[in-house]
Amino acid sequence: QNVTQTVEEEKPKPLTVQEIKQKIEKYNAKVTNCLLMKLNDDGTYTGFIKVHLKLRRPVTVPAGIRPQSIYDALKEVNLANMTDKRTSFYLPLDAIKQLHISSTTTVSEVIQGLLKKFMVVDNPQKFALFKEMRKDGQVLFQKLPLTDYPLYLRLLAGPDTDVLSFVLKENETGEVEWDAFSIPELQNFLMILDKEEKDKIQQVQRKYEKFKQRLQQTLKEARGKPG
């Protein structure tokens, strides 16, 4: 059972540099791959997080643009700016993206980084980052504030993703400011909603058509029986 929590937990007290060093050492001792955390001289640290993409609705991307190459990434080439044409498609459900981030990287920056990697041009306000936890047989989701630091949460929880994992989902809180979207984006939302409505109607029609066929078959078989 999936449960989404909106109540914010009490934030842990900030760690000292010595406490961070000790936690990083314990963290790295539990890591079973090469995704270690590294402490910098200034007290910040870097490491990896994995984000599960659980997007139920299509996203908007540039039309006819090739995937980003390593050269583009190194040169920070934004391929999305090379065309004004847009198209929509569904990202693979529950795909996983690995990010190398710093302890100063915020939730907002993680969301923007994910959208850039997939060349998604939708407004970042449409999305939210959640932390997923398992407790008493339930899967609990808690929306993270945009100013939180995901790597700090990863450090506190340890490397086990069964204890804590990150999920990118649609922002369903109703807090989206529609005035912030452009007219083409709003028109695209209407097209998506229209498609979802038609798909839902077809699903209901198919359901009752199958039910109707079973009833007709049962009546036909009953008429063929004596008495």
TrEMBL record:
GO terms for biological process: apoptotic process; signal transduction. GO terms for molecular function: zinc ion binding. Residues 87-173 form the Ras-associating domain. GO terms for cellular component: microtubule; nucleus. It is found in: Cytoplasm, Cytoskeleton. Residues 175-222 form the SARAH domain. This is Ras association domain-containing protein 5. The gene is Rassf5.
